[in-house]
Amino acid sequence: MAFNLYYYASPATFYGLAGRLIPWFGWGAALLTIIGLYIGLFVAPTDFQQGDAYRVIFIHVPAAWMGMFIYLVMAFWSAVGLAFKTRLSFMMARALAPTGAMFTFVALWTGALWGKPTWGTWWVWDARLTSTLILLFLYIGILALWSAIDDRQRGDKAGALLTLIGAVNVPIIYFSVQWWNTLHQGASIKPSGTSMDEIMLAGMLVMAFAAWFYAIAAALARVRSIILERERHTEWVKQILQG
Amino acid sequence: MSPPRLSVTGLACSRGDRLLFSGVNFDIGAGELLLVQGGNGRGKTSLLRLLTGLATPLAGQVRWRGEPIERVRERYHAEMAYVGHLNGIKDELTPLENLRMAAGLAGRRLDEAQAEQTLERLGLAHCLDLPARVLSFGQRRRVALAGLLTAGALLWILDEPLTGLDVHGVALVESLLQEHVRAGGLAVMTTHQPLQLANVPIQRLRVGDADLTPAETMSAGQ
Amino acid sequence: MGRFLLTVIRRDLLLAARRRGDWLTAQAFFVMVVSLFPLGIGADPQLLRSIGPGVVWVAALLASLLSLARLFADDHRDGSLEQMLLSPEPTVLIALGKALAHWLIYGLPLLAIAPLLGLQFALPAEAIGVLMASLAIGTPILSLLGSVGAALVLGLRGGGVLLTLIILPLYVPALIFGAGAVDATLAGTGAQAHLSLLGAFLLMCLVVSPWVAAAALRVSVE
Description:
The structure holds three protein chains of three kinds. By secondary structure, chain A is an all-alpha fold.
């Protein structure tokens, strides 16, 4: 059992596995995006309050979910890496971070695009937007720490520690921002107030799966290049590069 | 408790992509001194840092009294003293304060008379009350070596202890080493200077003589 | 254990006492940053009262980060950090002791200055009292969380800016609860809830931060 685990945790084995998985997730993401956008843009009805502007939620909400979710996955890999000293775990955390930061940024960007027609302003200090902004700051901090540390082992572990202490803080940050928001009576954006149409929900879920698939494909591709770079002196990488 | 013994098996260390050394083995017991040799940048300091437990090896194991040092960290560090390139003394404090502070941080008590005596032995009698900032390079080195004596450790790990010392200083360190080893202590050290020790068997270890090979070749199978 | 913790704290206090310039710089920074705000936005008492708590708190965050950059850096540069990590005593206590010493040296004086700044911002007496209470509970959080950041960026180029970047987001709850407590007093809703939450956050930091900081120190020194 333990032997098998280490077998797949070996970068050389994982490199091949990742290569086989990427097309599936990549094409899956493309297909789901087409379906999701079709539902979102053509099938879902126009909102009676917000008109067509609300349709940005088909990108905004999945992006916000993924930004948060990827951070938790990074924290998971960081914990695994620190506990079991598996090199691949640190590589996974590194490979996920840029995608997570990208989704968080997209969530903020689309939030602004949504806010303008809906509330007449690009930015409101809504609790969820504010938390997302702070999440982006956390991502930026981790990426900056990695880029400042030349030594690979130190970078891996330092980034993992920062990710973990960030993850412990995230619930507290979210709670405090929520608390701050209710006290200051900030604006709150909610999709059309009452209940969401079923077809809207379906579109959003399809888009969320598309984001999932894309994130997995992107992370696997990035992990492959990290593996190649780190193991470039090993025999198996030399064979790949020559062959 | 098994007798004091520092055993190293299959130790390997890398810096960045370069493998500094691999397959380093040695074993020393009470009353033995190991001299680590090798050119600049070949990993002597890295080896000593692995022995202290400050750094973790790419492969291999360091054992103290038969136990891996990471498992008996507290006991190992209570019995080991390290003098590195940096002296580890604070500029703002006097040699006396430095010594007592260092002892406190190691969880030991050191009374003033004892600290003073040790500093005097190292030829620092006239600068007990000066801030370390105004001391010369060699004098600071002597303060660090005084710390080594007050630590009362069984195992000394010394990285170039003779740099910056004058002729008297070198002779002094040699006599301290001789005394330590003859009393049943262990020592691992590096130096570029010839070492004159009477009646002390010196083991020698060369590191990093192999061709510089890339580090990953040996970790690939993990 | 308690005695060792005291030794670590006393050492840093002694070093700070020998180097008063640093201490003054941090306090002066705090006062100046806060005093610049009225110049930037005008002297309307109503406006000042509403932004005062937030301004004082943000300045406290920045002032603490300014001094945190050197929390471990000086000891790292002269080698005494290595010696501390080789102490048989637990590294966690060293990390905790240094964070507490940082709070005593740089956090506690902010409490004494804050009432004066509160007057500048036209805060009523009751709000000033709550401001001090919130700083009393909140500034240890800054030292504890900051010690993790200081350990992570040890020895990196541009460490100071990097420290700010990685730690400020983690400070958000302290800022919200701390400044919020004063706001709540001004609004007449009572600061109890805010201060309790701040206290809970402090407890959590007290339990978690030293462990992470100790692990980070080992990683950074390796």
